[in-house]
Design a protein that fits this description.
By secondary structure, this protein is mainly beta. The protein has helices at about 50-55, 160-165, 205-215, 420-430, and strands at about 1-10, 20-30, 70-85, 90-105, 115-135, 140-160, 190-195, 195-200, 260-280, 285-300, 315, 320-330, 335-345, 350-355, 375, 385, 390, 395-400, 405, 405-410, 440, 450, 460-465. Strand 19 and strand 20 (about 405-410) form a beta hairpin. The chain is elongated. Residues about 365-468 have low confidence and may be disordered.
């Protein structure tokens, strides 16, 4: 690795021109980092101070199995406050925090400090729990349980500022306590010109930035921080590397340039659940409840560098889902009957292309442009309930499809519609020596449907929608 300056070389600013200025080129001094050092050369004493310095690795301690510029630090904190009152009722408030800083080691940029990158993942969560016992007796009970949580996740991978890079080389005690500073981060602001309109103080996760990316470079050239600025390209002039190799993509050992990519992502989640549990009598226990989940997810990913938009991706979506259920458990001794109903609804609230592959030239973004995009609601989820008998110890099996981000998973377990009789239900369930009939809640992913959307020249006025 490079450590300090070995010598200064003077050379013409423009080779081949007589009357030209000279420039100073600093030739770096290279030292060993990993392994063990200090015993180089012959056993005899060094004949010069330079030879002694080389034998001692120029005073730099070797780090054994450690790799350079690869520190990793994680900081966490949590707190909880709980208040109990009455006959088992309680209120609790919890807070969670975590910060993970990682320096990313890139061997091709090992000798180019301006291109060193880091990754910071930050998570916040606040949770409120409330349990209220409304009634309690030997045969009857009534309780309400409410849970509300707010969560925020942020992740960034980008080139470090020069000062932050230097501060993180040798952290105190090996712990990275101070968050990194990045050349471009969540607080970075710039001007965006879309068509003939200019917008000031636009962040890279803002809607205007997403519109700029969707409009394409024909209408907006502020999609990346420094578009087509070739001065930022990685280079290796003067063969300033330990092996003296020339510049080549086959064996790149860059020494200048700043063209690493940027990846910003942020997601906010607000979730609320409520459950009402009522033991009406010694036979019936009724439960009902509901939940709602609201998401706000943003991402800006420029994997080809701050001066290139190749492979650029940006979006801002706000999906939402909610559901409710009601259930009655009738206990007749050896036989238990459970009946219930659940309903779930999901809306991605996302925009889908009318013509696959065409996401540019939005009329909403650039007036007069021909667009092929529409806004549609995802179809509602179909539900089906299968109340059955439960003998002895109740067992509940649930099969469902759940949406995570942009992916819709299809149920893999037995569907209720595939079970046509009690005997088939019994044989379809996994059981031990004592077979029990159970209830199964099943719902399937929505089919492909067509929804109305904006009419485009030469394109149909409806578009196939695939649920996310």
């Amino acid at each position: 690795m490079a450590s300090g300056v070995d010598t200064i070389v003077h050379q013409p600013a423009t080779v081949g021109v007589k009357n030209t200025d000279s420039v100073n080129v600093a030739v770096p001094r290279f030292v060993q980092y990993s392994g063990w050092c200090g015993d180089y050369g012959a056993a005899a004493a060094a004949q010069s101070s330079l030879a002694a310095s080389m034998r001692n690795n120029f005073g730099v301690d070797c780090q054994g199995l450690r790799q350079p510029f690869s520190a990793n630090g994680t900081n966490t904190a949590n707190a909880k406050l709980q208040y109990t009152y009455g006959t088992g009722s309680r209120v609790a408030l919890s807070g969670l925090y975590s910060l993970n800083d990682v320096r990313n080691l890139s061997l091709s940029d090992l000798y180019n400090p301006t291109n060193y990158t880091g990754t910071t993942n930050t998570s916040y969560a606040g949770i409120l729990n409330w349990t209220q016992n409304l009634s309690r007796s030997a045969e009857r009970a009534m309780a309400l349980d409410v849970n509300v949580s707010y969560q925020l996740d942020k992740s960034i991978t980008a080139p470090l500022t020069r000062q932050s890079e230097l501060d993180g080389r040798d952290p105190f005690g090996g712990f990275l306590l101070k968050p990194f500073d990045y050349a471009v981060d969540f607080n970075s602001r710039h001007s965006v010109k879309i068509g003939d309109s200019t917008y000031q103080n636009v962040g890279y996760l803002d809607d205007k930035q997403v519109q700029c990316v969707l409009a394409g470079e024909g209408f907006c050239q502020n999609d990346v921080p420094l578009l087509n600025d070739n001065d930022l390209n990685s280079v290796m002039p003067y063969r300033l590397n330990p092996y003296g190799v020339e510049q080549s993509n086959r064996f790149s050992m860059w020494t200048a340039g700043q063209d690493q990519g940027i990846n910003l992502s942020q997601e906010r989640r607000l979730q609320a659940r409520a459950n009402f549990d009522w033991q009406a009598d010694r036979f019936n226990r009724i439960k009902l409840g509901g939940e709602i989940h609201s998401f706000d997810t943003r991402r800006y990913a420029d994997g080809s560098g701050m001066n290139s938009s190749f492979g650029l991706n940006a979006y801002h979506e706000k999906p939402i889902r909610w559901g409710g259920y009601i259930e009655d458990r009738l206990d007749l001794g050896d036989v238990v009957i459970v009946g219930g109903l659940r309903y779930d609804w999901y809306d991605s609230r996302a925009m889908f292309p009318l013509t696959p592959g065409r996401v540019s030239s939005l009329p909403a973004t650039v007036p007069g442009a021909h667009a092929c995009r529409c806004r549609s609601r995802s179809p509602r989820t179909r539900t089906s309930g299968c109340p059955t008998l439960i003998r002895s110890r109740p067992r509940i099996t649930t099969c469902c499809s759940e949406e995570r981000g942009r992916t819709w998973s299809t149920p893999t377990r037995t569907k209720c519609t595939d079970v046509t009789s009690i005997s088939e239900r019994r044989s379809s369930l996994s059981s031990g020596s004592d077979t029990h009939l159970v209830r199964i809640w099943c719902w399937t992913s929505p089919p492909t449907t067509k929804t109305n959307c904006r009419t485009c020249p030469g394109v149909s006025s409806s578009c196939p929608i695939r649920p996310r």
